[in-house]
Amino acid sequence: MSIEHPEKIGLGTWDRDSLGSALNDLESVGVAWYYTWSDWALYDADPAPGTVEFVGMTWDERLVTPEALERIRASGATALLGFNEPDLDRQADMSVAQALDLWAALAATGLRLGSPAASLDQTLGEGSWLGRFVAGAEARGQTVDFIAVHYYSDSGDVAEFEAWLKAVHDQYDKPVWVTEWVLADWTGARSFSAADQAAFARAATEMMDDLDFVERHAWFAACEGGDGWYLNSGLFDAAGNLTEVGRTFAQLTAPGAPPPIAGGAGDDRLTGTAGAELVLGGAGDDLLSGGGGADTLRGEAGNDTLQGGTGGDGLEGGTGNDLYVVLSAASTLIERPGEGWDRVSASLNWVLGDHVEQLTLTGGAALDGTGNALGNVLTGTGAANRLDGREGDDTLQGGAGEDWLLGGAGHDRLWGGAGADLLEGGAGDDIYAVDTPGDRTFERPGEGWDRVCASVSWTLGDHVEQLTLGGSAALDGTGNALANVLTGNGAANLLDGRGGHDTLQGAGGNDTLQGGAGEDWLLGGAGSDRLWGGAGADLLEGGAGDDIYAVDTPGDRTFERPGEGWDRVCASVSWTLGDHVEQLTLGGSAALDGTGNALANVLIGNAGASYLCGLGGRDTLSGGAGDDGLVGGAGDDRLWGGAGNDWLDGGEGADLLDGGAGSDLLIGGAGADLFIFTGGWDRIADFEDDLDTLRLDHALWGGTPPDLAGVPGLASVTGAGLMVDFGAGNGIVVEGISSVWALIDDLQIV
């Protein structure tokens, strides 16, 4: 061991209950004695196990009773401490005279008596509380066997501590017990880490070991989460494991404990042995390895690697980006804020301590990894892992197994990897990466805007808002009842928004976008896309390529830019083409209107009575099966009536008008128009001689070779105009022509 008098080392704690399970482990840290300074507890008769000695204390006048003093004496104690800081109003708060009046009762126990322990400012000097008490006791002939003192350092200056102890001994000329000592700044201006406390504990213990007049000293206090929580001074953590301070006392008192193993300014490789050792890396990027004992490894400066052994090691990386390799659950890690990006590699279940950012689980076992309040990176093994990010914006990555990833609070990224994984983002705007159809996501209402990035076809689960397809395969993406954002990849995707006001965006492929219910925004992107808004007033934007829009609501809108391909609208409602859309096809059997734009449009009617209007451009209008009305508008248009009794108006320009089957009305309008007659009973309302042309189908002659010279024999003048009757229910009336000879030179037979 590195000290000669381990019997001096003691421990001060509030009461026996606050020690908890640590009561049975005091020997493991070399504590030779302990006392409790509770202001109310009556002491149990049984001392701590083993060789740890119990010392009694009368905190204030309330414990100076026959019952309390007898229980202390019966416990086997050989010494009794006087009152606790009697000069302070929130402690024992006693006058010197009051303490002297009660002193005889303490002396009657027959135990060695330690003086009341005054505060630091009332210990030295004849006029101090302690100076007046000792003088009063001597005047009354009362015994004070040793002087009990408290010392709290706010600097860690051991030389200053030593000088103060010597001053106490010089004044009172009695043995000294330091019954409370630790690093503390009660003003709150400074705080101290466990490493600070451990360094002070080591140096001050070695100092007091060399002072013969210091009979005993008691470190303050016992357990993290108990007496030592606010000072980082506990010997044990809340789970009963040794802290860095606890390991320091264990190293000081261990038989044959070696001095610290210290590196230099270079990149050192330092390895402990089977004992409990302190290994210091110093400057440089060091590799520190523990042995079989409870070692303390401190990387100090540099990007260090600390490999704990099988004992309960304490690992402190210091500044730099450090790597901790842990093999034992009893190992503890210490990092401070701003000391770099630190990583743990663990082959067992592990929870990241404060100020450590990354955890990588290793080996083939199914392990649990848990983060902290930082933005952590947690990586699993090839088995089934449970990764829990807790607070912070975390990145969780599973492996080949069926993993359970919990993001917790924060904006997290969860990637299950291979295997059917369960991904639970928690609160915050989370991103899920899914690559297996068996993966599952879980979100609760109101937990942020969440996104799935999928390399397989995917349907969004409840309470997830966004889906982005990845890779180059032709994948499907399906939304839910929320207002989703669905984005395709470069292949041919099928995106289905379902409920909600969705935004669907294709990429480079020939995509199919279905908005579903809600007022949706569909963007086809590059490629020849199909866009169907579904119910609701939707905005459909095809982008580059030859796109097809399916519209079923008058409130739908299409958007195209110039030069983005030949685009078509398929409408189940009356529709007017928007800018830069070329074709309109009416669907269903209802009587619908279809209107073009300034382009050369193709307008196609449905099975009902369609009204088609070309407006500007060289349009092609096809009526379909119903009794249709077709208006070409400006431009050289082509109008095909189809089946039904149709009405065709070419408008301006040199138009082609073909009524098709049925009794049709043909109006050429301005310009040199071409009228085509193939059968039925049609009427031309504005034929202009020597300008317009009438083209007759040769089938009108019923198999007889057609001959223009025979037309006058079929013609007759009526009140409606010139009528040409081909028989078999076929004929045409040309208004404005009173002589067949005026028409004959405007006829063509094909």
From TrEMBL:
<dbReference type="GO" id="GO:0005509">
    <property type="term" value="F:calcium ion binding"/>
</dbReference>
<feature type="region of interest" description="Disordered">
    <location>
        <begin position="291"/>
        <end position="315"/>
    </location>
</feature>
<dbReference type="GO" id="GO:0005576">
    <property type="term" value="C:extracellular region"/>
</dbReference>
<protein>
    <submittedName>
        <fullName>Ca2+-binding RTX toxin-like protein</fullName>
    </submittedName>
</protein>
<feature type="domain" description="Asl1-like glycosyl hydrolase catalytic">
    <location>
        <begin position="27"/>
        <end position="249"/>
    </location>
</feature>
<keyword id="KW-0964">Secreted</keyword>
<dbReference type="InterPro" id="IPR001343">
    <property type="entry name" value="Hemolysn_Ca-bd"/>
</dbReference>
<dbReference type="InterPro" id="IPR011049">
    <property type="entry name" value="Serralysin-like_metalloprot_C"/>
</dbReference>
<dbReference type="InterPro" id="IPR017853">
    <property type="entry name" value="GH"/>
</dbReference>
<dbReference type="Pfam" id="PF00353">
    <property type="entry name" value="HemolysinCabind"/>
</dbReference>
<dbReference type="InterPro" id="IPR024655">
    <property type="entry name" value="Asl1_glyco_hydro_catalytic"/>
</dbReference>
<dbReference type="InterPro" id="IPR018511">
    <property type="entry name" value="Hemolysin-typ_Ca-bd_CS"/>
</dbReference>
<dbReference type="Pfam" id="PF11790">
    <property type="entry name" value="Glyco_hydro_cc"/>
</dbReference>
<dbReference type="InterPro" id="IPR050557">
    <property type="entry name" value="RTX_toxin/Mannuronan_C5-epim"/>
</dbReference>
